[in-house]
Amino acid sequence: MPSSTHVSQLLAAAVQDAYRSALDLDITQDDAQIRVSTRPEADYQCNAAMGIARKVGKPPREVAQAVADTLLQPGDADRLIAAAEVAGPGFINIRIGDDWLGSAVEQVVTDERCGVPAASSPKRFALDYSSPNVAKEMHVGHLRSSIIGDAVARILRFAGHEVLAHNHLGDWGTPFGMLIEHLRDVDFGAADAEDADNPATPTIADLNAFYQQARVKFDSDPEFADRARHRVVLLQSGDEPTLKLWRMLVAESTRHFEQVYSLLGIGLTEDDVYGESFYNPVLADVATELEDKGLTSISDGALCVFPPGFTGREGEPLPLIVRKRDGGYGYAATDLATARYWLLERKCDELLYAVGTPQSLHFRMVFEASRQAGWLGEEQTATHIAFGSMLGADGKMFKTRAGGTIKLIDLLGEAIDRARARLELEDAGSEAEDSDTIARQVGIGAIKYADLSSARENDYVFDWDRMLSMEGNTAAYVQYAIARINSIGRKAAGAAGTGAGAAPETEADAASGAVVLGEEPERALALRILQLPAAIEAAIGTYEPHKICTYLFDTATEFSQFYQKCPILAPTTPPDVRASRLALADATGRVLRLGLGLLGIESPEHL
Ligand code: ARG
């Protein structure tokens, strides 16, 4: 039994070998085109023959037959492929051997990776996510970025890649002139910024309003606007008293962001902050480099690059502004410096950005310019992990009932409260050791799962009732399946412990039976359990965590079929069948927990 239980990958390798030995053809594993079969007579199918036959000028069924015969060469009794039959124009229907399936499930039970192989060529990724703006509340777009980015980081790391997470805080630029000037006006510096209980110290709750106040003054009071502009110059020239105030603003905001991260279980720390200000010292160099490489031109007094292939409505080339006509640097320049830094200094193979779809043109242009500049090499890639908007149940932009913008920390608090109410409502929390922990796991899990389970580029509707439902593709449904499995394990362990003075066995002992697949629901569940590696691979291929959600939902659903039709602990179930079913349940619990964990969602022990 190989250490990987990645069935479709093992089949692809077998098909690859078969092409070589039967037809002397070299094909890739992708060419093998292994798909899960939707027909009752097959588990998987191989769709390769049609395309390959065309290339080598042979009838597809003949090619398929030669491959199928080779696949079926007699081997070990517990071989992977039990049947391979040619069907239709040249498909091969494949049935997996029951013994092989059984021992693969046994392996899932003892392997902390649940049979998921590690990446054969690990890469180094730079992943930009969360990236809120200082002196403003995080909004729902930042929530989505945080949730999606964090899941992508977990999935890639689990697969064996290195992920350098960086939080591109909006902590620099002209608004800081007015913000700092307003800080001075309200005598912020005089208050003890260390003392969070001191009511004189503004907290971020004030700062959203604070930002508005500064804005109003800036727009209506020319004297203030002048001071603000001068303050920008001081900030950029490194004036220490100005920097001190700027740092206070950043620290105040960071405190707030960290509160959200900790409640959400997002792994970003202070060490991951690479805000816009971080790149400020190199912006002039970046501009010079682009000029030296002949990539820039002056347009309306601004230094611009015009990456090829990007045109506006009238067919006019679109610029990325490197240096504004007033000599300042903006968002695009900073992102060019960011790409250069993570590619050249940090030697990343892939750049990833979890940012909303409205910025997709910006990123495509930044990527193209980075290619032209020679920073993004042939072997490297840059990907915008774009996502749609979060909408209210009415299908409009997400707002509070009163129409205001939502404070994330309140939203998360509400999720936890609703989860608590819901669990009590269904009287499911009776066994709860720590209902606060469970309420948090279920509430935060609901928010994350609802976000991750829809294809990320679609807008998604935020709906409390749906996300907290125990039915359907929700966190609670999967968490509930896990809790039920845990409870079966506990009961089995308890029952085993009561036998003729035997010492109480552990859950693992009680479940460590040989897996024998007798009934159809057992077999179907076993096949599902073994699809975890493929689900993870698919999610990585397109950076789409919803593929893992779909897998979890399908697996939990398969489990409930099995649970209904195959009694586990009933007295009439023979001991060996019972042990086998316990092992199946145990393996299911393990893949579900692992999958939820990759999404950053915890599984309560009880529900
Ligand atoms: N701070 C930006 C915003 O709130 C997002 C930054 C995304 N990252 C980047 N490298 N541009 O829209």
Q: Can you offer a commentary on this structure?
A:
- The chain is α/β, with parallel strands linked by helices and 607 residues long.
- The chain has 5 domains: 7-96, Gyrase A, domain 2 (2-Layer Sandwich); 124-170 and 277-390, Rossmann fold; 175-268, no CATH class; 408-467; 475-598, Isoleucyl-tRNA Synthetase, Domain 1, CATH 1.10.730.10.
- 52% of the residues lie in helices and 10% in strands.
- The strands form 4 sheets. Strands 1-2-4-3 form a 4-stranded antiparallel β-sheet. A 4-stranded parallel β-sheet has the order 6-5-10-11. It has a 3-stranded antiparallel β-sheet with strand order 7-8-9.
- A hairpin with a 2-residue loop joins strand 7 (296-299) and strand 8.
- The longest helix has 25 residues, at 240-264.
- The radius of gyration is 29 Å and the shape is globular.
- The model is unreliable at 499-509 (pLDDT under 50).
Q: What does the largest sheet look like?
A: 4 strands, antiparallel
What ions, cofactors and ligands are bound?
Answer: arginine
- Helical content (DSSP H or I, runs of 4+): 40-55%
Count of the separate structural domains: 5
Which CATH architecture of the largest domain is right? Answer: 3-Layer(aba) Sandwich
Number of helices: 22
Largest beta sheet: strand ordering? 1-2-4-3
User: Quick one: overall form?
Assistant: globular
Please tally the β strands and state the result.
Answer: 13
